[in-house]
C-alpha cells in the first residue's frame, strides 16, 4: 500500500486518515440525527408515553443497521440529537474533521445541564472556535477546559461528579474457553471483608492440594455462592477430611453439549449460555456431578394452544440462545418466546417460534405492518427482518452454529394487547433529571458564604 512512499508521505497518510475518520464519524451522526427527525416527530403524541416510543424505534433501526447492541445504538442517537439540536456550530467543526469524536462526546456530556437556549448558543459558538486546539488535551484536562466556559456562562450547569458511593458495581463477563472475568467496585470495608473471606476459604484444604493460592482463591468464590464453609480439597486422598466435603448448591446452570462428548467419543466443545464454548475436558468433569437431560427435537405436528410445552420451549431456547433481533445479544433466560406468525394463524411449532427480548418483542408487536418491522422465519430457524426503510437483515440461531443438530430444518389482527405506558414522556424525564442536578448545584452555591471582594 505504501510502496515507493517516503516516511513523510506515510505521516501525511496518517494525518489524512485521522481527519477523514472524523469526517465520516460526523457524517454518520448527522445521518442518525436526520433519521430521528423523520422517524420520531415531536407531534407523535399518541406514542409519547409508550414504553417503546418513536425514539426507541429509531434506536432499533440504528442497532439493526450497524449490527450493534441497543445500548450502543442509544448512545449514538444521544450524540446525534445533541449535535443536531443543541450544538450545531460544533457539528460543523466536526464535519470538517477539525475535532475528533472524543472531544465532541466530552463537550456533549459537560454541557448537558445547560438549558437556556441563548446561553447554550453562546457556549456552542465559543467552544466550536476553540475545540480544534483541545484535541491534544487529556480527557481530564479537556473536561476542565469545557467546565471553565460552562461555569462562566451558567454556574448551575456544571456537571458535578457523582459520589463514589454511587458507582458500586459487580460485573461478570465471558473470557475464553468457558472462563469468566469478574470486575467489582465495593465499599472499602466490604472489599476487605471479601478478601479476608477468600483468603480463609483458600486455606481450608490440605497441603497436598495441587492448586496454587490464586487458583484456590478463585475457586473460593464458588464456595461462597454454594454457602460452603470450606473448599473441597483436590488432593485425592481418602484420608483427607477436606476432600470429602460436598459441593451441593441450589444454583442451576445450563450447559449444552453433545452426548458423544460427555461419553468421551467426541471432542466437540459444549456451550455455556452467555459465556461461550466449554472445552470437552471441562464438560466431562462437570458431567460427573450434573443432571443430564436430553433435548427433544420437536415433532412434525404443531402443539395445540398458544403456550409451547416445556420440551418445545427448551428446544427453542437452546436453538436460539439469544434474542433474534439483529444486533441484540440478550440471553435466552430473559427472552420471550414469540410466534413469528401470530397465533392462532401461526402454529405453536419450532418453525414459527423464536426468542425475542421484551423490548424487541414489543417493538415487533406494536411497530409492525407495511411501514414497520416485518419478520419471516425459515424452517432452519433463520429469521429475515425487513426494517421500516426496506432494509433486509438476517439472523441465524446461535445454537445451530455450535451444534449441527440444532441447525437442521424443523418443517412443518392483534386484539386485546396494549403497549405498556411510561409514567411521563421521555422529554419530561430528561427535564426532571436536569432540574434535579441543577437544584443540587444551586443549593450548594446558596450554602457557600458570599465572595469577599
Structural class: mainly alpha
How many E-type strands? 9
Helix and strand run: HHHHHHHEEHHHEEHHEEHEEEHH
Discrete helix count: 15
Strand content: 5-15%
Report Rg: 28 Å
Helix content: 40-55%
How far is it from the N-terminal to the C-terminal residue, by CA?
64 Å
What summary fits the major beta sheet? Answer: 3 strands, antiparallel
Uncertain regions: pLDDT < 50 for 5+ in a row? Answer: none
Number of domains: 3
Compute the average pLDDT. Answer: 88
How would you sum up the global shape?
A: globular
Pfam family, one: DUF222
Protein name: HNH nuclease domain-containing protein
Domain HNH nuclease: 311-362
Describe the structure in your own words.
It comes from Mycobacterium bourgelatii. This is HNH nuclease domain-containing protein. Pfam families: DUF222 (PF02720). InterPro entries: DUF222, HNH_nuc. Residues 311-362 form the HNH nuclease domain. The protein has 453 residues and is mainly alpha-helical. It folds into three domains: 7-161, no CATH class; 166-244, no CATH class; 310-407, no CATH class. Helices cover 44% and strands 9% of the residues. The protein contains 15 helices and nine strands. The chain has helices at 7-39, 54-66, 70-86, 88-95, 101-110, 117-130, 139-153, 188-202, 213-226, 259-262, 280-287, 310-320, 358-366, 398-402, 426-447; strands spanning 169-174, 180-185, 270-272, 276-278, 335-339, 353-357, 374-377, 383-386, 392-395. Strands 7-8-9 form a three-stranded antiparallel sheet, with no helix packed on it. It has a two-stranded antiparallel ribbon with strand order 1-2. Strands 3-4 form a two-stranded antiparallel ribbon. α1 (7-39) crosses α3 (70-86). The N and C termini lie far apart (64 Å). The mean pLDDT is 88.
Amino acid at each position: 500500500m505504501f510502496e515507493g512512499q517516503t516516511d513523510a508521505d506515510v505521516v501525511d497518510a496518517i494525518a489524512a486518515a485521522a481527519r477523514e475518520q472524523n469526517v465520516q464519524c460526523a457524517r454518520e451522526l448527522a445521518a442518525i440525527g436526520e433519521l430521528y427527525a423523520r422517524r420520531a416527530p415531536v407531534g407523535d403524541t399518541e406514542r409519547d408515553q409508550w414504553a417503546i416510543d418513536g425514539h426507541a424505534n429509531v434506536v432499533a433501526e440504528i442497532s439493526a443497521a450497524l449490527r450493534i447492541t441497543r445500548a450502543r445504538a442509544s448512545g449514538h442517537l444521544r450524540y446525534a440529537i445533541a449535535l443536531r439540536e443543541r450544538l450545531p456550530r460544533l457539528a460543523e467543526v466536526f464535519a470538517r474533521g477539525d475535532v475528533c469524536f472524543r472531544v465532541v462526546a466530552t463537550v456533549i456530556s459537560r454541557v448537558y445541564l445547560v438549558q437556556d437556549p441563548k446561553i447554550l448558543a453562546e457556549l456552542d459558538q465559543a467552544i466550536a472556535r476553540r475545540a480544534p486546539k483541545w484535541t491534544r488535551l487529556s480527557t481530564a484536562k479537556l473536561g476542565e477546559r469545557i467546565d471553565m466556559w460552562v461555569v462562566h456562562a451558567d454556574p448551575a450547569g456544571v456537571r458535578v461528579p457523582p459520589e463514589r458511593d454511587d458507582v458500586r458495581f459487580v460485573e461478570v463477563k465471558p473470557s475464553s474457553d468457558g472462563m469468566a472475568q469478574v470486575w467489582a467496585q465495593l465499599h472499602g470495608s466490604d472489599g476487605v471483608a471479601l478478601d479476608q473471606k477468600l483468603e480463609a476459604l483458600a486455606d481450608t484444604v490440605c497441603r497436598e492440594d495441587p492448586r496454587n493460592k490464586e487458583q484456590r482463591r478463585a475457586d473460593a468464590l464458588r464456595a461462597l455462592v454454594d454457602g460452603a464453609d470450606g473448599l473441597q480439597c483436590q488432593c485425592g486422598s481418602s484420608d483427607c477430611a477436606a476432600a470429602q466435603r460436598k459441593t451441593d448448591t441450589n444454583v442451576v446452570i445450563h450447559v449444552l453439549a453433545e452426548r458423544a462428548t460427555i461419553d468421551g467419543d467426541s471432542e466437540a466443545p459444549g456451550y455455556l449460555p452467555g459465556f461461550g464454548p466449554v472445552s470437552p475436558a471441562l464438560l466431562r468433569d462437570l458431567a460427573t456431578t450434573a443432571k443430564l437431560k436430553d433435548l427433544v427435537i420437536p415433532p412434525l405436528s404443531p402443539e395445540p394452544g398458544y403456550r409451547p410445552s416445556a420440551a418445545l420451549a427448551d428446544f427453542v431456547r437452546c436453538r436460539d440462545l439469544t434474542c433474534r433481533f439483529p444486533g441484540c445479544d440478550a440471553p435466552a433466560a430473559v427472552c420471550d418466546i414469540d410466534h413469528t406468525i401470530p397465533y392462532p394463524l401461526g402454529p405453536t411449532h419450532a418453525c414459527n417460534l423464536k426468542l425475542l427480548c421484551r423490548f424487541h418483542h414489543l417493538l415487533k408487536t406494536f411497530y409492525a405492518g407495511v411501514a414497520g418491522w416485518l419478520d419471516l422465519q425459515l424452517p432452519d430457524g433463520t429469521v429475515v427482518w425487513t426494517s421500516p426503510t426496506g432494509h433486509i437483515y438476517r439472523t441465524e440461531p446461535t445454537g445451530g452454529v455450535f451444534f449441527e443438530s440444532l441447525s437442521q430444518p424443523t418443517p412443518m389482527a392483534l386484539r386485546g394487547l396494549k403497549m405498556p405506558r411510561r409514567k411521563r414522556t421521555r422529554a419530561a424525564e430528561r427535564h426532571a433529571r436536569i432540574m434535579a442536578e441543577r437544584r443540587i448545584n444551586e443549593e450548594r452555591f446558596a450554602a457557600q458564604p458570599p465572595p469577599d471582594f
